[in-house]
Write a structure and sequence with these properties.
Elements: H1 2-24, E1 34-37, E2 47-50, E3 60-66, E4 76-80, E5 96-98, E6 102-104, E7 114-125, E8 128-129, E9 140-149, H2 166-174, E10 181-187, E11 191-193, E12 197-199, E13 204-210, E14 215-219, E15 226-228, E16 239-242, E17 246-249, E18 267-270, E19 274-277, E20 282-284, E21 287-288, E22 301-304, E23 308-311, E24 315-316, E25 320-321, E26 329-335, E27 340-343, E28 347-348, E29 355-360, E30 367-369, E31 374-382, E32 391-393, E33 400-408, H3 413-420, E34 427-428, E35 430-432, H4 440-444, E36 448-452, E37 458-460, E38 472-474, E39 479-482
Parallel strand pairs: 3-9, 10-13, 11-14, 12-15, 13-16, 14-17, 15-18, 16-19, 17-20, 18-22, 19-23, 20-24, 21-25, 22-26, 23-27, 24-28, 26-29, 27-30, 28-31, 29-31, 30-32, 31-33, 32-35, 33-36
Antiparallel strand pairs: 1-2, 3-4, 5-7, 6-10, 7-8, 7-9, 34-39, 36-37, 38-39
Length: about 475
């Protein structure tokens, strides 16, 4: 009996110890928390925690809506894998008011803006229409697709000329049956042409303006981009104006093949036509390899045979002339009696050439400077001992000339100097206009550069020469005289 009691006591002790160990374990089972592994619906290889028995957490995704300028659409979040969503309420998009590109028979300040309206079409995923029956298995962004409704054409728009078609616009302006007067061409795309654009009809004035940002016009084959003026006779009241946001681009070496270049000017103006540049316009990117007078010997703009160029703003820069003659000009060449270059603003500089502006064989006021007009290297030409170019300065001119150079069509430097220097009757190089008397500040804006012959060879104007042992200078009245 004693043995039975002893055995029973031992069993009770063993059971007590066993229950105690089970209850305590390793101390991590308090509050019934259970460690579970997995990173989502697949379990994975990471770790995660859960209460009340653990398990896996399903993946969730987000669908974001880009309304492309329309009203905001809230994203859909916490979408379980494979679930579908319903389409949101269609967004709306406010209409825009802007100019409609095209050719108009009225000046720019009379052109009316039009209102564009937008209709929502659909939601797209990567440019493909999205079906809301598609299960969602990843986070995605849906983009709104809109249709811009064609606005009612404003008054003055020529419906027969397609938008951004420069060639058709020029043809229409030149047509015999088109009305005389002022035309405006608005372009909202870059334009490329392969043929020359000629404006030659009397009493037609065309202005080209870029809308929505800078717009370029370029010709991708050699030759003029614009040729302004009739083949013979004198144009009457004919002009081309390059307005804001318009850049004319010539043809660079190698741009369209290793041997490509241009052999002509970007713009040639002749026989009474007026070419105008306004603020925000530019002519650049031309490499002219021509050595002939008819092609300007490298210039970007050639003004000849009684034509005129009025520059109210803009820039002519970044053009290159490759000829080695003393006529080498990258910007503007003005030649022949009666041709004029009137600068009321803008700049002609930064061209790779001997001159940025050259006045050739023109008498009188071949160049007029006013307001803030600026020129890099300026060249004046003496055709002979009595026919020379000169510069006209208006009161209030605040611009600059980097260097004033004097050339002539003779190979002997002594003759070149002789055509520009006459001790008995000093040669006028710079003069005031409209009764204005030059002041020293005007003269100081013409730093003297070089004499140039046709060889070409150069000699500094300030260097000693026959009749001027101390070199030459411009006096207060704009005459070239010996330095005392």
């Amino acid at each position: 009996m004693k043995n039975i009691i002893k055995i029973f006591s031992i069993l009770i002790l063993v059971m007590f110890i066993g229950f105690s160990m089970t209850a305590c374990g390793d101390g991590s089972g308090d509050n019934n928390e259970v460690e579970a592994s997995g990173t989502g619906s697949t379990g994975g290889s990471g770790t995660g925690s859960g209460r009340g028995g653990g398990g896996t957490t399903p993946n969730t995704f987000t669908v974001t809506f880009n309304s492309q300028g329309g009203s905001a659409v809230a994203p859909r979040t916490n979408i379980t894998s494979g679930a579908r969503i319903t389409a949101p309420t269609d967004p709306t998009k406010a209409g825009a008011t802007d100019f409609l590109p095209g050719l108009y028979t009225i000046p720019f300040d009379q052109i009316q803006k039009v209102s564009y309206t937008y209709t929502f079409d659909e939601w797209q995923l990567n440019g493909v229409p999205f079906s809301f029956t598609t299960p969602i298995t990843a986070s995605i962004t849906l983009s709104a697709h809109w249709t811009a409704e064609t606005p009612t054409p404003p008054p003055g728009l020529v419906s027969s000329v397609a938008a951004n078609n420069l060639t058709d616009a020029i043809v229409h302006v030149n047509a015999v049956g088109s009305p005389d007067g002022l035309y405006t061409l608005l372009i909202d795309e870059n334009v490329t042409v392969t043929g020359v654009q000629s404006l030659n009809r009397n009493n037609r004035q065309l202005t080209i303006i870029g809308i929505g940002g800078e717009r370029t016009i370029r010709r991708i084959v050699a030759g003029n981009l614009f040729f302004l003026g009739p083949e013979s006779g004198t144009a009457v009241n004919t002009s081309l104006t390059i307005g804001n946001n318009i850049t004319l681009i010539g043809r660079r070496n190698g741009e369209h093949g290793a041997a490509s270049h241009n052999n002509n000017t970007v713009v040639t103006v002749r026989n009474g036509v007026n070419f105008v540049m306004l603020d925000g316009s530019k002519i650049t990117g031309n490499t002219n390899t021509s050595t002939t007078d008819a092609s300007g010997q490298g210039t970007a703009v050639l003004v000849q045979n009684g034509a005129s160029f009025t520059m109210k703003g803009g820039a002519i820069t970044g053009n290159t002339a490759t000829t080695t003659t003393s006529f080498n000009t990258g910007g503007v060449t003005v030649r022949d009696t009666g041709s004029t270059f009137i600068m009321e603003g803008g700049s002609v500089s930064g061209n790779t050439a001997r001159f940025d502006v050259l006045l050739r064989e023109s008498t009188g006021f071949g160049l007029t400077l006013s307001e803030n007009a600026a020129i890099g290297n300026l060249g004046l030409d003496a055709f002979n001992a009595t026919t020379r170019s000169s510069v006209n300065v208006l009161q209030g001119w605040t611009g600059s000339v980097t260097s004033l150079n004097l050339r002539s069509g003779n190979s002997a430097m002594a003759t070149v100097i002789g055509w520009w220097f006459n001790a008995g009757s000093p040669v006028t190089v710079v003069r005031g206009a409209a009764g204005y008397t030059l002041i020293q500040a005007d003269i100081d804006r013409f730093p003297l550069g070089n004499f140039l012959s046709t060889v070409p060879s150069t000699q500094a104007i300030s260097a000693p020469a026959a009749g001027a042992p101390n070199g030459f200078m411009l006096n207060a009245t704009g005459h070239l005289v010996a330095r005392p």
